[in-house]
Here is the input.
Amino acid sequence: MDAPPSPPAAGPAPPKGGSAPPKTGAPPAKPQAAAPRPVPKGEVGKDFRHIVRLVNTDLDGRRTVEFALRRVKGIGARSARAIAQLAGVDPGKVIGYLPEEEVEKLRKAIESFERRVPPWMVNRRKDLNTGENRMMVGTDWVIMVREDIELMKRIRSYKGIRHDFGYKVRGQRTKSTGRKGAVVGVTRKKMLAKLKEAKAGEKPKAAAAPAAAAPAGEKK
Here is the structure.
């Protein structure tokens, strides 16, 4: 009598739905590095600086280099990353933990930014006075914007006239936003309604005055 056949070797059960089991030879997925985060108030160390001074601006020491540099007038997201790369500083580092040498590298990178990047990366191309491509930061950026607005007002350009009257300049809607001042649509309607009520109250009083004077004349 022949022996009964041996049962098949137990293997991983196929998943529901009839799909093929996953390949065992595929490499495991690499864990992604956590994004840098600001330092909470209670997690500062011994060498931590709460305020870092750059370009006459106080930077929050709890922020990373990339985000802290954006507090400087004239520096945006792209230029902040470029400045960190030019200085050789990790943009994900917390700026409050940077030693003074790396802060000085950032300062020099900001000063030499316009000479080390393409012209399309600076924020002042073909300056009206010098014709050069310049990177304006800090108080220089504030003065530049103020002078440009004053120039537009003097030459009475469309944007200058809008600036002079305090209106929106860049084509925004003004029907429902930017409403300021005493005379606007809703306020004016309320004022006109009050004036009509006041005039309507004066008419009955004026009509009652002659009626009250007539009996006095009859007594005479």
